[in-house]
Known about the structure:
The protein is of the alpha/beta class. 40% of the residues lie in helices and 17% in strands. The protein has 15 helices and 13 strands. Strands 1, 2, 3, 6, 7, 8, 9, 10, 11, 12 and 13 form an eleven-stranded mixed β-sheet that branches. A two-stranded antiparallel ribbon has the order 4-5. A hairpin with a 2-residue loop joins β4 and β5 (129-132). The chain is globular, with a radius of gyration of 22 Å. Residues 238, 242, 263, 267, 269-270 line the site of one 2-acetamido-2-deoxy-beta-D-glucopyranose (NAG). One 2-acetamido-2-deoxy-beta-D-glucopyranose is lined by residues 238, 242, 263, 267, 269-270.
Amino acid sequence: MSSSSHSHSHSSSILLTRVVLLLVFLHFSLLFVTNVTGTHLHHNHPHHTHSSDKIINLPGQPKVGFQQFAGYVTVDQKKHKSLFYYFVEAEIDPSSKPLVLWLNGGPGCSSLGVGAFSENGPFRPKGNILVKNEHSWNREANMLYLETPVGVGFSYSIDPTGYDAVGDAVTARDNLVFLRRWFNKFPQYKHRDLFITGESYAGHYIPQLANLMVQFNKKEKVFNLKGVALGNPVLEFATDFNSRAEYFWSHGLVSDLTYKMFTKSCNYSRYVSEYYRGYVSPVCSKVMRQVGRETSKFVDKYDVTLDVCMSSVLSQSKIISPQEQNGESIDVCIEDETVNYLNRQDVRKALHARLVNVRQWAVCSNILDYQLLDVEIPTITVVGSLVKNGIPVLVYSGDQDSVIPLTGSRTLVHQLAVKLKLNTTTPYRVWFAGEQVGGWTESYGNILSFATVRGAAHEVPYSQPARSLVLFKSFLDSRPLPEML
Ligand SMILES: *[C@@H]1O[C@H](CO)[C@@H](O)[C@H](O)[C@H]1NC(C)=O
Ligand SMILES: *[C@@H]1O[C@H](CO)[C@@H](O)[C@H](O)[C@H]1NC(C)=O
């Protein structure tokens, strides 16, 4: 036993050295190829419709070999509704890589500020410059970040009634229109393999958008949709929210007594449901005050291992998960690099972005009037219909998140598999990222999968960039997660 584990660790350290050398080698040779390909594409490009959206250079960015684009697509001429996108081509050989649409949640939070600039995009702001993210998802795909619905980030409606009563249905329709018209700008991506990924409230946005695509394809095959991946998603409001009590309790954030109250007297789904209807019952108010007092505001609910809030990436969860606190809420994030960066005038200019009806770019919209009761629409059933239509779905969970805990998501996926009579194709097991366990996974019928990401927050690519990239690559290749070192 000890001798085998010794030789095992010995050979893996050799392997590691080789891998590192290989990567260094690949890195240099591929940089060269990228430059050549980039030049080639630039000169012989058959379509020029998107050329005005090309980003010459983002202020403070390091030199890179891939192209970036940003701009607007009008989704409603009457109300002058335009959605803003940021598109990053793959680092290497973009024409052979799939197209991936990324959506953040909220509802009403920005895929540009959260997804692209804090999670899985190529750069992260640091002071006045942009630092390269070595685990950017554009290593594996062409990444399209969409600020949706109107009122989010740089997306706008000139007619302010465009911000009223926006809900899941309008958002899905606008997103569909966006993508169809975006393909007119980038026709070379029209028939490319398409994946949709995102997190949190995108558990609502994505299944509903994918469902519209599947319906649309029945009339006219337009979307080459190959799969959907949902990170810490809201899929069924009661199951997701009520798994929170046990998560708090099992991680020592609340006492036995409070746990009992939080399940028996007033559970979290009841509280949120009352809160959104504008009336919180005395019993729920009492329970939530107790829960708030014990959990405290100095532990990050989106990653319970962290001391205080990490950054504005966390704002998106504040909306789906209101929590009663004692007195005013303190923002422990004093400085936010992304907010500062995206509010620079030179950055806005480089992104071809405009501020319409707002004075500042914000992580989450304060102009949008979203129909928050839509959170109660169960989208797990929509996921079921996607699977029945042959679309692979991966649900993954950062396992340190208490906002949408892994336990609720795992239960929902398992129940769906039973309902669809899908047999287990990968029994629950660990998966590896590099030399360590990246998390656990289980698959059903080779089409529906669940995975955890070990040590990850609500925003998985933010807190576990390397593990998230392994997960992302397996998902794109529709392969089970790595089984061994
Ligand atoms: C949550 O509370 C509601 C209302 O009291 C109840 O209908 C529901 O069954 C509860 N859910 C759980 C998981 O306890
Ligand atoms: C699932 O497993 C059962 C029992 O082993 C088997 O009878 C059935 O054919 C399997 N279904 C599929 C779709 O493979």
